[in-house]
Amino acid sequence: MGARTVIEGPALAAAVPPLNLPDFIRAGARQRPGQVALLDGDTGVQLTYGELDHAIGRCAAGWAACGLRPGDVLLMFAPNSPDWPVAAFGAMAAGGVVSGANPGYGAADLARQLRDCGARFVFTAPVLLATVREAVAGIDDVRIVLTGDAAGCIGFAGLLACDDAEPAGCAAPDALAALPYSSGTTGMPKGVMLSHRALVTNIRQYTQVWPTPAGAVMLAFLPMFHITGFTIVTLCGLATGAKVVTLGRFEPASFLQAIATHRVSYLSTVPPVMQFLALHPLVDAHDLSSLEMVGCGAAPLGEALERKVAGRLECQVGQGFGMTESSGCITVNPPRRVRPGSSGCLLPGTQARVVDPASGADLPPGTPGELWFRGPQAFTGYWRQPAATQETLTADGWVRTGDLGVFDADGYLSITGRLKELIKVKGFQVAPAELEALLAGHPAVVDAAVIGRPDERAGELPVAYVVTRTLDDGSHAPERIQAWAGQHLADYKQLAEVVACAAIPKSAAGKILRQTLRAQDAQRMAQKDVRA
């Protein structure tokens, strides 16, 4: 296999305290009891850090009184609100395990996750109650906790009013704390096992690079069921004393108004929102001058779009790289040393390797390959899936990310694609992300996704689906975009077709749903064959 080439992040500045996650959050809250911790951007309801500390304790007692025992799973199926972290921290403090689910799920998807994780409780909101009732209909011993009142449900307000003593010592640092589900863009979602220690470590790693200044305001619009919205926004914000403003969903006007009204200083986003910030005319109608830093994660972002946002908002814009299996984050661009187009440098206490996917050998510096990482923030395995765990997690702790990337001489990571998304053209490998980044530089292209189309002679051919804006010179026409791109591409990377579409199918985290797009392309080609 040859010698290993290991890239190292800096050392952690201080030891990670041996606390479970809610105790870690509460220890910080007790240092600033009068400051606002959580503010509901939809209703204006707020909690100070002192009130947050008290609510977590009452919630833990309430969960225990309702029958939640150490190791029981609570499934969170609700939009963002201050109640979301209170319920989650309370359950963890009582020894429970929290699994977030996408509030956009239908009953079938929700039931699948409920069964897989073995949840005994579901936390939800009245607007989603009908979906929950349908999902739990065929599952025994699942209790519904509701932020409201309804027959057959436990009221969350009543749970918080419990005056029992707090359950003590239920969650050890190495116990399972969270069970988020991977996005499933390359297969069925899997439960990712994260310990209290891994989550607390990732908070410490991230905030060592990006310490939150006094008075910081963060907007929590990214869904808390997703690892970015949970760790990078909610956990890091509350651990460092920021005011965290929650929004139940992304809507352009209310999103921009929340930034302006609450003077948001730190904003974490995903690529579709970056496109909105770069291009939408509504942005200019709001005062966004409070923004000091805009971060982007969950999926790669082209350098051109990143620079557009930075120029328009006149603030720092930088990317990070992470995955659910890393508790949140692996790399981040350091403040005032942002390198556009890159995903930044390794977090403290983190190691990485770039490996040849075929041979498993480490590649020389500057050579793209599969990114592997190792660090105390790594997951412990997939829930009840030992074979999948063995495929991803090596015996000596390396996590195979499935992402292709390269580190430059200064230690900045650039993600070049997904291993399973590579398009194989006559034996050559083509990364969709490379072609998408090129297309993003065309003045008419608003969004783009590239997939491989099966071809008898070449194996596969790259095909681009693009969302365009109309230009007076007609350069928005698909055939003209294809010709323009062809001037910049090697022969085997040439696009077989550029197809105009209304929207690119994406997950809630902004990842392109290539399986969906490939199915649409196959249907389109079948219809063309019928017409022919």
Summarize the structure.
The chain is of the alpha/beta class and about 525 residues long.
Which short descriptors sum up this protein?
alpha/beta; 27 strands; 532 residues
Can you characterise this structure?
Helices cover 30% and strands 23% of the residues. The protein contains 15 helices and 27 strands. Strands 1-18-19-21-22 form a 5-stranded antiparallel beta sheet. A 5-stranded parallel beta sheet has the order 5-4-6-7-8, sandwiched between helices. Strands 13-14-15-16-17 form a 5-stranded mixed beta sheet, sandwiched between helices. The longest helix has 18 residues.
> What is the makeup of the main sheet?
5 strands, antiparallel
- Overall shape: globular
Helix proportion: 25-40%
Mean pLDDT equals 93
Give the topology.
Layout: E1 7-8, H1 21-29, E2 36-40, E3 46-48, H2 49-65, E4 73-77, H3 83-93, E5 97-100, H4 107-117, E6 121-124, H5 129-136, E7 143-146, E8 154-155, H6 156-160, E9 176-178, E10 192-195, H7 196-209, E11 217-220, H8 227-239, E12 243-246, H9 252-262, E13 266-269, H10 271-279, E14 293-296, H11 303-313, E15 316-321, E16 331-332, E17 345-346, E18 351-355, E19 369-374, E20 381-382, H12 386-392, E21 399-407, E22 413-418, E23 423-425, E24 428-430, H13 432-440, E25 445-455, E26 459-468, H14 478-486, E27 497-500, H15 514-531
Parallel strand pairs: 2-12, 4-5, 4-6, 6-7, 7-8, 11-12, 13-14, 14-15, 26-27
Antiparallel strand pairs: 1-18, 2-3, 9-10, 10-20, 15-16, 16-17, 18-19, 19-21, 21-22, 23-24, 25-26
Helix pairs in contact: 1-2, 2-3, 4-5, 7-8, 10-11
